[in-house]
Structure formats: C-alpha cells, structure tokens
C-alpha cells in the first residue's frame, strides 16, 4: 500500500522544512492516516542531508489589548533557502505572524528561534542588530525616501549597519545592477515607476546579504506585468543566493510560486 | 550607524524643511541675540566702571555717615527726640565734632577728613561766568585726568575742572587750561561776596561715574564752609577716614563693623561701587529676563518643530527601525536636529550681537560718548559668550529630548502603517 508517491511527498515536505508533526497532520488530512498507523513514519524516510532550520517557532500566541487573539499557537520551522508563502484572508493573523517572525513584534507567549537562538533571550538592541544583519524587507507600500537617490535608498541598511560610504556605494551599485537599476543610481527614488520602485526595494532587502527576506504583499501596488516581473526578479535572486523568502499574500496564484504554503485562518495554521 | 551618517541625515532633514527650520532658528536667534547684547552692554559698562573707580574713592578710604533715622511717611510714627541726632533738610542726619573725636579713636583709623558742605556762587574767567559746584577733593581719589594732575597736599587755592568747562572758558585745549587762573565766588553768612583766585592744575576727563564737579582742596572747602556756617557749630554730612592701605577685605569688614556698632554707617570703595554695580546689574537682569523669555519661547518652537518633523517622518522612522536602526540611533538623529537649530540660532545670535556691538561702539564713541575716553559701550569677553553659546545649544537639546524620545519609541509596525 505504501506508494512511491507518498515517500516522495514526505521527502519533499521534509526538504522544505515541515516538522514531523506537520507532515502527520497533513497526511491525516489527506486520508493517509491508516497507512501511518500501520507503518510509522520513520521507516518511510531515508536519512537525507537537509538544510539547517533558519526560523522556528514554538506555540506562538499573540493577544492584543483589545482581547483579540491574532495568533493561537503557531509552531513551524523554515529551512534555509526555501520560499514560503504565508497566505490567509485579511484578519487571519498572517501579518501578525510575519511581524513576529521578522522580530518587528514580540509574541505574547511562545518562542521564535532564529538560527537556533531563542530570541526571547536577546535584548532589543541585539534584536535590532539581528534584523539589520539577517533580515531584508520588501513592503507593499515600498517605503522609499523619495527625495533621496536610488543609491542612497538601496544602501540604507548598510548605513544603519555602520558601513563607510565608500563601501556602501560600491555594494549599492552592484546591487542596483542586479535589479536592473544601475542607470538610475543618482536619480531620486520618487521619479521611478512602481515596478522600478519595488525592484529598488528588493535591492535594498538583499544588500546586506540577509538570510531571510520578508515580502509583505510585494506586488499589491503593481499591475500584472510589473507583478510578474518583480516576482521573477525576487525569486531569481532568492534562489540563486540561497536566501529564505517569506512571502505574505492573500493571492493564491502568487503563493503557488513558492516551495511551500502556510495557510493561516483565525490565528492557526490550517 | 556612523555618527557622520546620523549628522548627515539630521542636516538633510532640516534643510528639506527650510522655512520651518529658518523660523525656529530665528526664534533661538532672537533670544540669544538679546542675551548676548545685554551681556555685551553689561560687560562694557562694568569694564568702564572698574576703570573709573578712582572717581568714587580710594582703596584706603571709608565714608562714614550717621545711621539715617527716617520716620516712615506711610506709618504715622513720630521720632523720639534725641539730642545727639541733628536732622537737616530732608531729615538727613549730620555728624559733628564729637563724632570726629569718636571716629578718630577707633583702632585702625589713621586720620579723619570731614566733608565740608561748601556752596559756591560762580566761577569766572574774564567775562565768562558760570554757575559752579565744587566738591572737596580727598587725597588718594584717582580721578582720571585729560591734562594736568589731581590736587596735591598743600595746594590750597587750586582747582581741577571738568572737561566741559574748557571751551566755555576760551581755552584751546585741556592742556592750555593748565596753570591758568580762575576766580571763584562764594557768599558768607552776611551775604557778602568773597572772591578767590585759583590756579587750574588739572582737567578732569568726562565720566559717567562721579566726577561731575570741580574739585577744590580740603582747606579751601573748609574756608568756605566756615564762612557759611552760623554760630560756629560744625555739622558734616559725612566723614572720610583713612586706614592702613594694607588692610585686607576682612580687616576692612571688621573696621566697618566697629563703626556700625557705634551707630554709624560705613562704606568702603567697594560698597560704593557696589551700589552703582547693583543698579547696573538690576537693569541688566531685567534685560536678560526678556532675553530668557524669548529663548524660552524659542524652546517651545523647537519642541513644536521637532514634533512636526517626527509626525511627518513617521514612516521613515518606522522603516529605519524595521531595517534595524535601534532607539539610540533614532534619538541621536532627532537630537542632532535640535542641537543644530540651537547651534545656528546661537552662532547667528552671538555673531550678530558682536557685529551690532562693533557698529554700536563706533557710533557711540563718535557721538554721545565722544568725551568718555575709553568707554566701549559693548564688550565681548570670550568666556561668557562661550557660555551663552553652549547654553543655547544645551537648551535646544533639552527641548529636543521629548520629540526625540517619541521618535525613538515609535513602534515600527504602527509607524509603517501610518501613511
């Protein structure tokens, strides 16, 4: 009864970082429960070299002062180099989850582990430094400083890191080249088109050579053509540089482009 | 983030809100300008007064007066009769020969010089005849002279004239007047006119502090006074006493106490200068308070400006925090903005007050202060001005603390939602 299909599924699921518990959960939902009962999981899987886990959460909850439970016990693990879509309707808690994963917010209870280190042990200054060094961000609303040049915008994370201007500009020009904006280095960001703006943001997110990029509805303000262009560049760079991508979206088509999808509903993973 | 980058961001932000920055800098400017101009004026006057101290007295001379016993006109008090108290016009208590004897016995007093209340009628030379006042010269008073010297002991029929008499008397210069003779007239108790011929030995510099009368010798003052006093009872408005010129301040204070124990009031040179100083200081304090109020208003301006800047740049702050800038970085950027406003306001304020001071000095010395040799209307000593400068910047920093704190505490998620 054990099919090759099932083995392949488990392998893939493990590869992209699903925990055993998650795999069991998904298999049960798919109607494979009886097989699991008969065989046990361990026998199904051959030992394989797997990428280390970058982000890991244990029973995250988030309760707001208004007593709404945005998250009600979310546990997940994300492996290096994978692309993960967090999908859910508005109000589902997907944004809250992203904020906590990105250390922009702290959970009410539970733990976020980054590179094997529990973040609850870190001071705010250490968390800020961690975010600066290991994370990159792409936002729907871009958040560019319109009156600054593209070069200044793309190198902002390096400035925050305390890198000298000379090194900053060197790396900035390289990065602008990678997102196809090298011609616009000295132009003000406000003069760019929407697609160009988001490419600039991708450059800004990647310039510190982060481990994880968080993209919050990165195509939300773009037309179809620019959307696919921006997503292409984002996934390209993410794959070629071995960076983990967390894509928050409500769009299932966009989620399909990722290795793995985590669906959030009412504060839990479904 | 490097300090230079924080500074650059803060300067860029100030520059981008040009008008607002300019207005806030202007507010600081007005306060600092007022305060530094006041201080410049104060320093100028004080320097001048210090130089003119000699007009008021000598270091080894004390002024002794009777303790004034005024009946308070508001209350209905009536003074008890006291045979020792001699009240003159305006209820001024006078001193007599018994007081001279008493004062002379106080340990430390070398000699006592009564101040003779002498009234002159006129001074004339040829046809020029002027109303005259003369004050008794006390040896050791260091009156600034434009020509000649102060009266020397033994020069009885000699006079030093204020500079303003030089031209009316037809002298070509102050130097020209030296050695020339003048006639001084006074009346005795029988209304008889007596004239004396005096030699001009010095011309006094024009001064704002004392020194407005001609100086005559003690002997001549006594002669006039005796001719004018009825019944030979001598009364003096004040006595000068000379003490050892090596006395320290505390020894002088002890001496003063001895007099005060005997119901006299005693004033050293410093006390008398202090009185002038107190008046000047009071005026300067009032002016400084105006400056301080302006500066206080300016700090509110800074607070307001920075709050506006924080609100305007909420999403920018949120972005920087999301990208890993910590609280201190954000706080520093906004504090630097505040400090820069203070820096430019103070620098411009002090700079302008110095320029105004230099122009003012030139105008003043060419016009209404023409005759006051060595009087700089405004002086700009370095230390107090560094203090004002540092104060301006510090005040701006303090004013900027609250908005900077607000910026540093912004929650990045909320800040980024803010559009």
Structural notes for this entry:
The complex is a heterodimer of chains A (270) and B (419). With 270 residues, chain A is of the alpha/beta class. Chain A has 2 domains: 4-44, no CATH class; 79-106 and 116-269, Rossmann fold (3-Layer(aba) Sandwich), CATH 3.40.50. Chain A has 11 helices and 10 strands. Chain A is globular, with a radius of gyration of 20 Å. By secondary structure, chain B is α+β, with helices and mostly antiparallel strands. The longest helix of chain B has 44 residues, at 269-312. Chain B starts with a helix and ends with a helix. Classes of the chains: A alpha/beta (270), B alpha+beta (419). At the A-B interface, helix 5, strand 6 and helix 7 of A face helix 8, helix 9 and helix 11 of B.
Keywords summarizing the entry:
heterodimer; A: 270 residues; alpha/beta; Rossmann fold; 2 domains; six-stranded mixed β-sheet; four-stranded antiparallel β-sheet; 11 helices; 10 strands; B: 419 residues; alpha+beta; eight-stranded mixed β-sheet; 14 strands; 50% helix; 16% strand; elongated
In short:
The complex is a heterodimer of chains A (270) and B (419). By secondary structure, chain A is an alpha/beta fold.
Looking at CATH, which topology of the largest domain in chain A would you report? Rossmann fold
Question: What is the architecture of the largest domain in chain A at the second tier of CATH?
Answer: 3-Layer(aba) Sandwich
Please identify the oligomeric state. heterodimer
Identify the biggest protein-protein contact and residues per side.
Answer: A-B, 28 and 22 residues
Distance between the termini of chain B: 26 Å
Radius of gyration of chain A: 20 Å
How much is the radius of gyration of chain B in Å?
A: 32 Å
Number of strands of chain A: 10
Give the proportion of residues in helices of chain B.
Answer: 40-55%
Low-confidence stretches of chain A: none
Number of strands of chain B: 14
User: Approximately how much beta-strand content do the residues of chain B carry?
Assistant: 15-25%
The succession of helices and strands of chain A, N to C, reads HHHEEEHEEHEHHHHEHEHEE
Helix fraction of chain A by DSSP (H/I, runs of at least 4): 25-40%
Described by the principal axes of the CA atoms, the overall outline of chain B is: elongated
Element string of chain B (H = helix, E = strand): HHEEEHEEEEEEHEEEHEHEHHHHH
CATH class of the largest domain in chain A: Alpha Beta
Number of domains of chain A: 2
